Amino acid sequence: MDYFDIFISILGSAVRLSIPLLFTALAGLFSERAGIFDIGLEGKMLASAFAAACVAYWTGNAWFGLLGGIGVSIAFSFVHGFASITNRGNQIVSGVALNFVAAGLTIVLGQAWFRQGGRTGQVPPEGRFSSIVLPGADMMRDVPIIGPLYANVISGNNILTYIAFLMVPISWWVLYRTRFGLRLRAVGENPGAVDTAGISVAWLRYRSLIVAGFLCGFAGTYLSIAQSAAFINNMSAGKGYIALAALIFAKWKPVPVMLACLLFGFLDAFANFMQGKSMPLIGEVPVQIFQALPYILTCVLLAGFIGTARPPKAGGVPYTKER
Amino acid sequence: MSTASVPLPAWINYGLIPVLNLILAFFFSGLVVWAIGESPFEALQLLLIGALGRGEGIGFTLFYTTSFIFTGLSVAVAIHAGLFNIGSEGQAYLGGLGAALVALAMDRYVPWYVTMPFAVIGAALFGAACAAIPAWLQAKRGSHIVITTIMFNFIVSSLMNYMLVRLLIVPGKMAPETRTFLPGGQLPKLDWLIAAFGGKIGAAPLNFSFLIALIMCFLVWVLIWRTKLGYEMRTLGISPTAASYAGIRYSKIVMITMLISGGLAGMMALNPVMGASARLQIEFVGGAGFVGIAVSLMGRNHPAGIILAALLFGILYQGGAELSFDMPGITRDMIVVIQGMVILFAGALEYMLRPSIVRLYQQLTGK
Questions:
Q1: 117-156 in B: which are within 8 Å (CB) of A?
Q2: Which of A112, A114, A149, A107 is nearest to A235 (CA)?
Q3: In this complex, do A104 and B2 lie within 8 Å of one another by their Cβ atoms?
Q4: Torsion angle defined by CA atoms of residues B317, B321, B323 and B329, in that order, rounded to the nearest 10 degrees
Q5: Of A92, A96, A91, A54, whose CA–CA distance to A71 is shortest?
Q6: What is chain A's pLDDT, residue by residue, as a tens digit (323 residues)?
Q7: Among A124, A237, B229, B316, which lies 20 to 30 A Cα-Cα from B333?
Q8: Which residues of B touch A299 (CB under 8 A)?
Q9: Contact between residue B78 and residue B259 where contact means Cβ atoms under 8 Å apart
Q10: Residue B348: what are its φ and ψ, rounded to 5°?
Q11: Which CA distances in Å does B333 have to A118, B130, B341, B349?
Q12: Which domains does chain A possess?
């Protein structure tokens, strides 16, 4: 296999690995731009992966699975909102709690329902999102450079992948070109001003969390019934936190979020590829370096060495209307 | 008038409200148990018997309690200075490396009581080192400590993975762990403590680090409420502007606080690494750092409260393990659900009941 083919295959797997990150980071984008820190992204992704696998297993319909995933994810969002908006609790603590609940509940319920040590049953093919071959992919395959790129990277993904990339311009449009988006960004910077304008801070923040739950549901669904065929114990495996890192790395902006997720997905794919192989000149590179790299890069960015990352001003602060 | 500013007597604030929150958490956990077709009351009974019924159970309960005291103190010290350290998990993990290196270097030459002080220092230093960069980033560059400590949990996890899989592993073995420490690198069991109450410790790994944890509780109390440094930390935590007006140097206090916090988290490693398994294993922290957040919150960031809250989580851990033996329908992960519920109700929703309790209190006292 020559270098170009290897590159194409890494690129293809990078795209697939970055999709759950992309959905989750966009979810985080909506909640954090509205001033709600969401450490619970990880738990939401896990819970929705479990729900999607269960529903798809029982109904044999992938779209119902997606609905189940989204539903559970939004339910988690509501709990987060109830704690951090209505009761003005600590948003980090609430997120940590939801991560615990999701990690435990998926295994307890999974064991009670399926008796397979935390796995759900194998989802039948019609209950999964399978890959779509775009028109002309086979014809294009022999065209140099563009051909393999089209056939292996752009074509051959499942519908959720295309939805993920579609969500990027939609998120941008909602955040920057609609009244809701303007208010959402305002409530993350200065909720007092939004309140003075006669707009409910709480309702606006709840809506942003619903959007976040909606997007996170796609991420979980992708994990359990698009990337694999069942829910497996703790299958989110820290992806929620990588997505959070990507969101910060992208400085809380939609298009950079996509690029950051692709970068982190590429690092992941590259690490998988490099496992046990040696590089020219430096020898074998420990795979753990690639695993740590997203977090290291994010810390370096936060330190202000690559431009400045300015978080939403009111992030993490509960809004108190009266004193 | 808003109910938030009505003062309540201490027994309601520190006694009644946490207990009510706890009951709510257990109620919802009970619903989960009921939903999967088991009896919540029977489960609770089995849990309590498993955790407190026999000497061995108590030994295990106090073993888990020890870890949670360390991580709880770690979170609490940071919270007093207004810093949210959710990196205790990673700091404890790196602390394990410090303790293990000391044990590996000294265990064949000296008895355990010579190794121990060095191991305590080693664990604390490595834990503090893990907190140092996030602390510096917060103090000097204004990066949010919550985010950087999360990032460091993962960076440490990768680093330790590398250390164990590549460097510390016993050649020829598959399991990524160090060799077993000789008795000179192990902490002795506290069998006499359990025996003093007429029980048998059995296989329970309760060990000397329990006493170190209690000493640390006292030292943290002295630090926070009886020293100038503690006063400055609390001032910074309550009002950074007042602190700066009073001439308290922000970056200095942030650095010192986080180093102490990381050091306490690092010492947690003594318990599992030198006390229980006598070797450094992969992922030995197992979420204790995150439980520390709940312990600190429930204990109202006070060492006495932290001991009680750590004991509660120790009971949950040990009782939950026993429960999964007795009730095959319930897996060990039920305790993760209960923990989550406790963190949710006692932590994130801690103010939920307050308005209604204030109203009730005002009616009853006629104010």
A1: 133, 137, 141-144, 146-148, 150-152, 154-155
A2: A107
A3: no
A4: 120
A5: A54
A6: 577 888 888 888 899 999 999 999 999 999 999 999 988 999 999 999 999 999 999 998 999 999 999 999 999 999 999 999 998 888 888 998 999 999 999 999 998 888 887 788 888 888 888 887 777 777 777 777 777 777 777 877 888 999 999 999 999 999 999 999 999 999 999 999 999 999 999 999 999 999 999 999 999 999 999 988 889 888 888 889 889 888 988 889 999 999 999 999 988 888 888 777 776 666 677 888 888 888 888 888 878 776 666 778 888 788 887 65
A7: A124
A8: 133, 137, 143, 148, 151-152, 155
A9: no
A10: -70, -35
A11: 10, 29, 13, 23
A12: 3-302 (1.10.3470)
| For chain B, domain boundaries | 39-328
Q: Decide: B336 and A100 in contact? Cβ < 8 Å.
A: yes
> Cβ A97–B133 below 8 Å, yes or no?
no
Q: How far apart are CA B85 and CA B79, in angstroms?
A: 8
Sign of CA dihedral A134, A137, A143, A146: positive
Q: Which fold has domain B39-328?
A: ABC transporter involved in vitamin B12 uptake, BtuC (1.10.3470)
Dist CA B43 CA B49 (whole Å): 10
* Region of B35 on the Ramachandran plot (φ > 0 left; ψ -120 to 50 alpha; else beta): alpha
Amino acid making up residue A216: C
Asked if A183 contacts A204 with a C-beta cutoff of 8 angstroms, the reply is: yes
Q: Any idea what DSSP says for residue A116?
A: S
Name which of A2, A69, A35 is nearest A193 in CA terms: A35
Residue B340: which of B17, B52, B77, B28 has the closest Cα?
B28
The CA distance from B24 to B38, in Å, is: 19
Residue B335 touches partner A, C-beta closer than 8 Å: yes
ipTM for this model: 0.87
On chain A, the residues whose CB falls within 8 A of the CB of B162 are 286, 288-289
